[in-house]
Amino acid sequence: MEGYVRHLLAVLPEVQIKVDDPKPGPTPNLKEVEIHLSYGGQSKEESFYVTNDGQYIISGSVYAVNQNPFQADLDKIKTDLSPSFGTPGAPVVLVAFDDFECPNCREEALALHANLEKAFPGQVRLYFKNFPLQSIHPWAKAAAVDGRCIYRQDPAAFWKYHDWIYQNQADITPENLKTKLTDFAKGAGIDTIQLGRCMENNATEADVDKDIAEGHALHVDATPTLFVNGRRLVGTVPWDNLKQLIQDEVNYQKVAHNAGEKCCEVTIPSALNK
Questions:
Q1: CB of 167 within 8 A of CB of 157?
Q2: Is residue 182 part of a domain?
Q3: Structure pTM?
Q4: Residues 45 and 79 in one domain
Q5: pLDDT in tens, 60-77
Q6: Are residues 14 and 107 both part of a single domain?
């Protein structure tokens, strides 16, 4: 399998390839095989389907016509304990995998935060996921860890940080990030002592690593990557285009009811539950 894929994708010899064990595929006649490619600190994942007799390899997506076409990705996205804004239980959920140092993320992230709820009141919710591209952005992961420290202290303040760091992106360096962040925190009413302790201990690094792992499981390899009810959008999409796509999904969910956020019912164990 490795040799075939290496030849198929014209992968250079210095790129490492790891082939996972086959797992059940979308139909009884197919197995799914994950391929992991890595080089110079960067990684990428590809999925292939292999027939049970091993004679055919299929590259691409397989859709079940009685399911949401994006169900496979929706099953991998976990939104619990992630920064969010919008309406709980909304029919359209956006999940953004972003990098605070990424210039391409800046325009889309700021546009979404400024316009999304105004354009679609009560109909949308957005979750933020960290996906720092560490091999090309030296302060991205530190900014992600710091942002999670702020979120842990005050979830609402995270979105002030989100806008501030994108607006000041061009002036931030690995050397001045901590100083600039401390100045921002003072003005935003954040407890700087608590924040400093969290940053020094890397207390939220595991949260960031969890986002990164989820991104890899979804085969995210570029930022921004935005999922709209599971629909993958890679690269910066202008707000007017996003607005039309989201409106189409709002309209579609009025009929389909096969995506969005399942919220907010709590079931208490009881003899009355049947």
A1: no
A2: yes
A3: 0.87
A4: no
A5: 888 888 899 999 999 999
A6: no
